[in-house]
Task: inverse folding
């Protein structure tokens, strides 16, 4: 028996459009692209959800992949639309996002908590009326921590250095490796594996 509610809805946060594609703020989109590739799920624009959307089966369970096309600060519109349509709960949701408070090459997964000023998380929480969903936090670093003179908004909307990109891609791969456990309802095991590999 699963030890917790299986995660079925995977939402990567980012901004649509080629000008944002390679920016730090789109790390959540990068994760979803890689997960879709691993699961052989085709992503397509679904206007009803205002998102790129994909659906598949993993070990007999539904899996839904979402990249909101609303821009970051309105991510909750897409998320709530998908959840209403498929009657999903917050416990079945994993939101993947860039995290200023973690260095590149660091990844953490947790349920609930604050939004750390992240506009995408703020909007999702406002639409769901709860913070009790899973988050996968992909470290991108903070300009102050990295001794950069950039403002935060400028920092997240620029490309990472080659070294930092390699580190971010590395933790995306690590996180992808534990997703089968999360999908099977062994979310605590997935978290333990992810954190012990650090």
Result:
């Amino acid at each position: 028996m699963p030890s917790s509610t299986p995660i079925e809805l995977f939402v990567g946060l980012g901004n649509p459009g080629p000008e944002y594609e390679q920016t730090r703020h789109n790390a959540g989109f990068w994760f979803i692209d890689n997960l879709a590739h691993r699961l052989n799920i085709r992503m397509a624009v679904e206007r009803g959800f205002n998102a790129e959307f994909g659906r598949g089966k993993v070990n007999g369970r539904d899996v839904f992949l979402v990249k909101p096309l609303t821009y970051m600060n309105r991510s909750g519109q897409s998320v709530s639309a998908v959840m209403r349509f498929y009657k999903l709960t917050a416990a079945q949701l994993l939101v993947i996002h860039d995290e200023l408070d973690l260095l590149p090459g660091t990844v953490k997964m947790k349920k609930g908590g604050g939004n750390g000023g992240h506009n995408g998380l703020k909007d999702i929480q406002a639409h769901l009326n709860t913070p009790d969903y899973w988050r996968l936090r992909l470290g991108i670093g903070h300009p102050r921590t990295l001794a950069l003179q950039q403002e935060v908004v400028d920092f997240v909307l620029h490309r990472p250095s080659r070294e930092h990109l390699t580190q971010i891609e590395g933790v995306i791969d690590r996180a992808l490796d534990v997703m089968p456990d999360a999908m099977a309802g062994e979310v605590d095991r997935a978290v333990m594996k992810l954190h012990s590999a650090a």
